[in-house]
Amino acid sequence: MTERITLLDEMGNKVEFQVLATFGLDDSEYAALLPVNDLKSSTYLLRIEYDDDGGIILVGIDNDEELKDVIEAYEEIQKERLQ
């Protein structure tokens, strides 16, 4: 997958990300993103939500249990890709 998106960081700077994967888990959708200019950075896992017009909103995961489940699901996807 070579899809890229641009998001704003905490300082309002544009940061380009490569979309590594999108996947569903427990009736929610998630995206795994990697900064294009910092490939040694950690992968960002964000929940995909939708605004009233159907536009995508990427939201950080604050719930520790949800984050744990999302990390496990993403790691399983990575293992499957390597097989």
TrEMBL record:
Top-rank lineage group of the source organism: Bacteria
- The protein in question is named DUF1292 domain-containing protein
**Which organism's genome codes for this protein?**
Tepidimicrobium xylanilyticum
